Known about the structure:
Layout: H1 2-15, H2 22-28, H3 30-48, H4 66-69, H5 76-82, H6 85-105, H7 107-118, H8 122-133, H9 140-151, H10 157-164, H11 176-195, H12 197-204, H13 208-216, H14 221-232, H15 234-245, H16 254-259, H17 265-268, H18 271-281, H19 285-312
Helix pairs in contact: 5-19, 6-11, 7-11, 7-12, 8-11, 15-19, 18-19
Amino acid sequence: MQSEKNSTAQLALNYGPRKKGLSHYLRRDWQKYLMLLFPVALVFLFNYVPMYGILIAFKDYNFMKGVWASPWVGLDNFIHAFSLPRFSRVLRNTLVINLLSLVIYFPMPIMLAIIISEMKNSKIVRIVQTVSYLPHFLSTVIVGGIVYQLCAPRTGLFNQILVLLGLNEVPFLTNPTMWLFTYVISGVWEGVGWGSIIYIAAITGINPELFEAAIIDGANRLQRIWHITLPSIKSTIVLMLILKMGSIISIGFDRPFVFSNPLVTDVSEVISLFVYYVGLGQGDYKLGTVVGLFQSVVGAVMVLIVNAISKALGEEGLW
């Protein structure tokens, strides 16, 4: 009996499924791997090769000597950057703008997506979507020009309307507080339509039988939104919030550059402009690299923290 068991085990080893090696899959799916080669090469070239420049943050970089030949200085560049009063200001401005954008802008695409999903007239839906998506496809320079035409002192359309109504002009672009308001609201107008696409897709995936059952139970529209729509897209909202928190101290260059002016520099100069003016304008590549690396590290840490909090609360995270 024992010999029969041994022979059966031996047969299973000889004729059972064997683990296939990498060469097997390369021969079988070489076309797929060949198609994968180009995007992987692009990612490596534009995302990993530039990381070599991070060394500048830890060196007394000299353009003539190059990165490797420049002497190491450890964290001296970081200490110098963080001790600059100007750096404290641009960090504060970046945080203020991003937090305002998070509070004001983040709910807007969700609200627009819910409104569009509740519309029954397909023609009106197409018009609303087209009008809301259009600003996203305009360049930042054009958006800035439109905002200047609407909000400029004396000649701006909004101020002309206020004067006609007998009211005082509002310094939308010259008063620091009003500039922040104008900047954030223009960002909402520019991106709310495009940002709503992912939420519209999430709402479309909700089982319509849930809404039908709620209607039978007597739930009105607001109750259906609160008890069915929002809980069903909660995972998408959390995911987008995690990604948004990852860029809490990062900000694009184009919008602050276009909207800024000398009268509001105290609130409009952000980290990206600081890197541009100091790193490229003054040729201080060490300082520019230090600030860029600082943004990346803090962004990664924020993503990890918010993702961990999300998982601890029972929500789905990035991983």
